[in-house]
Amino acid sequence: MDAEPVAVQLTRIPRAASTQDLVHQLGEDGAPHGTAIVAAEQGAARGTRGRAWHAPLGGVWMSVLCRPAVPAAAEVLSLRVGLAVAAALEAGTRTPPLRLKWINDLILDDRKLGGILCEARWRGERLAWVTVGIGINVHNTIPPELGTTAVRLAEYDPAASAEGLALPVAQAIAGVTGGSAELSPDELAAFDRRDWLYGRRLTAPAVGLAAGIDRSGALLIRESDGRVTAVRAGSVVLES
Questions:
Q1: Which end of the chain is less enclosed by CB atoms within 10 A, N or C?
Q2: Could you tell me which of 219, 193, 205 has the C-alpha nearest to residue 78?
Q3: pTM for this structure?
Q4: pLDDT tens-digit profile of 106-120?
Q5: Per residue in 209-238, is it b (16+ CB within 10 Å) or e — as a string?
Q6: In Å, how far from its chain's centre is CA 67?
């Protein structure tokens, strides 16, 4: 699925503690949809559930302000962003096909290439904005302890550059916020083609075989008795 390119206002800065925090402040100040900040490095980047994210020089470390046309679409925004960014990276580099690990990881050659973090801000019951953060390993150093589980684009395309990828990635993110509250059949088919978890045995968020996703973006897990459980949140743990 290709996201339609949209105009973005991209600001490049040498360093930030967290681009998420900077873009949240811009959202509070009334900045428009598509406002983005990319930092050459981050000192206090974060992933899902507050986990620290290693963000040194050489990667794409960016946050984009999104104002979804349909507030309920925020529930599937991370999946739409994953599809759009995977397509943008394949179009802009010589990378092999990318896969997606529910709910927010970009996978290359069975290793993590990047991650997506969507943080919504509400005013009462009204969605005000969503800040979409993304980190993509390009030429940055991978910590030794992550050497077998993380990967850089430069391993497959030495000519890839974080500077050159920032704008098309920001456009891909900003271009997928006009969808409905549920994934379309085309989006489900696109995810199926990239689904890294499918058929793998899980021990969490439920025990069973990963069996795709449904229109709400929930992970489907087939249990030993044949029942299928739909899980909308939680960390994925593969059976060792």
A1: C
A2: 219
A3: 0.94
A4: 999 999 999 999 999
A5: bbbbbeeebbbbbbeeeeeeeebeeeebee
A6: 17
Q: Once rounded to an integer, what is the mean pLDDT over residues 211-235? A: 96
Q: What are phi and psi of 230, to 5 degrees?
A: -100, 120
What are the Cα distances from residue 68, in Å, to 103, 114, 126, 128, 218? 19, 23, 11, 9, 20
Q: What is the pLDDT of residues 13-50, one digit of tens each?
A: 999 999 999 999 999 999 999 999 999 999 887 766 56
CA 153 to chain centre: 16
What span, in angstroms and rounded, lies between the C-alpha atoms of 73 and 224?
32
Dist CA 238 CA 227 (whole Å):
19
Rounded (5°) CA angle 82-87-88: 100
Q: Is the peptide bond before 37 cis (omega within 30 degrees of 0)?
A: no
Contact 195, 99 (CB under 8 A): yes
Is beta strand 60-66 parallel, antiparallel or unpaired with respect to 99-101?
A: unpaired
Could you give the strand order of the β-sheet that contains 201-204, starting from the edge strand earlier in sequence? 228-231, 219-222, 208-213, 201-204, 237-238
